[in-house]
Amino acid sequence: MYPQNYKIIRIAAAIILFVIAIFILKIAVPYAFILMTLSLLMIWQGGGPFAGLVLFFISIPLIIFASYITKSHIYNFQILIMLAAAVPSHLFYKKATAGLLDKNKESENIQEQHNIISSQTAKDRELTQALLKKLDRYNKLKGLGEVFNTKLSLKDIYNIITEKSFEIIGKADEAKLFIVSGDRQNLEVCSTKNGKEGNSHASDSFNKWVLNKAQPLLISDATRDFRFDYEDTQPQPGYLSIIIVPMMIQQRIIGLLRLGSRKRAGFCEEDLRLLDFISDLASAAINNARLYMQTEELAITDGLTGLYVHRYFKERLSEEFNRCRKNSHMPLSIIMLDIDHFKDYNDKYGHAAGDKVLKGISEALRKHTMPNNILARYGGEEFVVLFPGEPKENIIPVAEAIRKKIQSMMFVLRRQETKVTVSVGVAGFPQDAASSEEELLKRVDFLLYKAKKEGRNKICVS
Question: Mean pLDDT over residues 81-103, rounded?
Fold first, then answer.
């Protein structure tokens, strides 16, 4: 309708004019009537028809009173004059009101359009932010794939998986990678981000559920999820929201990737789908690293005995010799053994029997050495063992124990019991060779063949 200030000013002016008209009614009737007419026009425009009619009916007795005191009935025509003035005032009021209504309606429409545009802008802004967030996530996924392509160490890959999952999802308080070990489907924690080390939660209900069903799992509230008994989830304090995805290679679960949040409903379906995609990339990276390790192992190990091959042993010997030579206080010992009359044994019993003997001797070597010792099949029936940091005096009893063990071993071939013996040479750095690893090898080889010349099945030490 009318603006509030406009109405107040019109009504106030009309009242003032009407009051003045009343005061001058006795002394200046014509002027009083003029003021009444103006006040009627103004109050009708400011207060509307109701206020105008009220003023009109108040004016009638005043006009009659003025006619009475002046003894002139012509003043009664003032009523008709005011009534005539009321008509254009009402028409003006209606026109002004209609214009204001149109303007108000237009203003409301503009405001409505503004609100719609503002709302749409806010939605577009939220959508843009969401799309930018998704784009950032997918760029990180692309980067993750590129990082995986440059890494072949399993340990590095495990750490990258937890760190990048934690970073890309961006809502977790903890990230853990569990790898399936052995045929029992046991889970071992291989990498943790922001969590405690160790196998905590490895066998809880959530992990078991994913292992059994081979499906991703989203838990919004671990204390209220109807699929699990809360008492069974007690080992998981502090993490109310959990997402877990299986890591698969050729339909076989190799591990689980798990994120936890201390907030209820900390993760959504989009986060679960993203983590599942990360697990696909991670599974492929783990598989590639394992295949690389297997290929590398095949390249440096003997297929029959599982010991290192001649080439790799020479590389390790060079590394250890140089390390010991730099540190003059660090000794290095080596034993070399050869199976006595092995060619005759092969000719008599066959190569399958000879392979069985080679495997048996390699097992005997493993049982009498430590994990840090370097074992290799040096030739057809020759074996070497390198002992970094061990003086020759400590290795002589080991060599003798190996010789005795092999001498006592029984190889049953077609119900026939057979035995073999070995000749052994023992040498050490720096006593027997101070200049090079080749000198050390020549020395231990010389001692080995010295044992053979002296009757075999014995140890020779310089």
Answer: 70
